[in-house]
């Protein structure tokens, strides 16, 4: 099965302090351009050079590992509107969890399940997209 990995699942692949995600049933893994954007922003947040070097190394390893990248385009924007409608209907805040919801919109637009380590951020989307806990 092909699935879109969210940022939490991608990070867990290279972090030694994270349990290794169970990706065994997934034959094809894709990553959103938004995940690369979110990770790139995180490269510049550490206070010291050693921590930044670790993040740069992790980022390079992930980019080499996950080459199937899905773009965020107009169909994703329409899917994002559907997601925000669902969130508001269920009492959520439309401006919260921006990247998580945009990545979920990418999964919806490409008709893929979303593999995540952080189900809490997208729990209001149940029934709209398939969510896989990894």
Q: Count every beta strand, where a strand is a DSSP E run of 2 or more residues.
A: 5
Low-confidence stretches: none
Number of domains: 1
Our measurement of the CA-to-CA distance between the termini, rounded to an integer number of angstroms, reads 14 Å
Radius of gyration: 15 Å
Give average pLDDT, whole number.
92
- Spell the H/E element sequence: EHEHHEHHEE
Q: Please write the CATH class name.
A: Alpha Beta
What CATH architecture do you see?
Answer: 3-Layer(aba) Sandwich
Task: Please summarize the sheet with the most strands.
Answer: 5 strands, parallel
Strand order of the largest sheet: 3-2-1-4-5
Question: Do you know the CATH topology?
Answer: Rossmann fold
Find the CATH superfamily. Answer: 5'-nuclease
Q: Helical stretch count?
A: 5
Backbone shape:
globular
Helix content: 40-55%
Structural class: alpha/beta
Beta fraction? 5-15%
